[in-house]
Design goal:
241 residues, alpha+beta, BirA Bifunctional Protein, domain 2, SH3 type barrels, seven-stranded mixed beta sheet, five-stranded antiparallel beta sheet, 24% helix, globular
């Protein structure tokens, strides 16, 4: 494992696509100018105040169809780290990290497939709000460690804590995948709580999350009709606020 720190770069995920980086290597940017989030969104972070980095994992013991458990492990590592600071976080499916109804961390995971339908190389991108207390108006419902605890923390210290948590969760993937899945469900945002959701066509409905399949589909029970329907990423969106 090696950590490479850059004062400024466009995207740590893009940098980690360089094959010179091996399993366990991390690329940290003090300032990231073109960070990416889920659904094609940008990730905005004030230079020097937050943690923006990407990590290379080689989980070739996982089949491609099992890739969601890797996403679960990453999300749980962030939850574990925040718990160490006295912050109780949840995972908003598939892998945004929330405290209450506010977002503290975004995760972007990209996979390359290897032989026989297995994962070869995975890039894990994490943007964690650490010391930022003021955010641009266009950013929805943000929060940070500093806002939640009233304390500033060194980003290097937070990185060290999070990296250790990531290593522990990665090891669980080898022989305790069911535990990872159970922990993920136990920390799922709005589990068994009626909420409003939006479909790609803009239609909204009331429903309740009942489970997440090992392949990643969110199982939502519709209030109208009482049926349970699976949804893939980008097929459903939370309506918050």
């Amino acid at each position: 494992m090696a950590v490479f720190v850059f004062k400024k770069m466009a995207s740590t995920n893009a940098e980690c696509k360089n094959p010179c980086y091996a399993h366990g290597d991390a690329v940290v940017a003090v300032e990231q100018t073109a960070g990416r989030g889920q659904r094609g969104n940008t990730w905005s972070s004030r230079a020097g105040e937050n943690l923006t980095f990407s990590l290379v994992w080689e989980a070739d013991f996982l089949a491609a169809k099992e890739q969601f458990v890797l996403s679960e492990a990453v999300a749980l590592a962030v939850v574990d780290t925040l718990a160490g600071y006295g912050i109780e976080a949840t995972v908003k499916w598939p892998n945004d990290i929330y405290v209450g109804h506010k977002k503290i961390c975004g995760i972007l995971i990209e996979h390359d497939l290897g032989v026989a339908g297995r994962l070869a190389r995975t890039i894990v991108g994490i943007g964690l709000n650490v010391n930022q207390v003021e955010f641009e108006e266009w950013i929805p419902n943000p929060t940070s460690i500093a806002l939640l605890t009233g304390e500033r923390r060194g980003t290097n210290d937070v990185f060290g804590d999070l990296y250790e948590a990531l290593e522990r969760r990665f090891e669980q993937l080898k022989d305790a995948r069911q535990q990872v899945q159970a922990d993920y469900l136990g920390h799922l945002y709005r589990l068994n709580k009626p909420s409003t959701y939006a479909l790609p066509d803009g239609k909204r409905f009331r429903g309740t999350i009942r489970d997440v399949r090992p392949t990643g589909e969110l199982l939502v029970e519709h209030e109208e009709g009482g049926f349970v329907k699976p949804y893939l990423f980008k097929e459903i969106e939370f309506v918050i606020g």
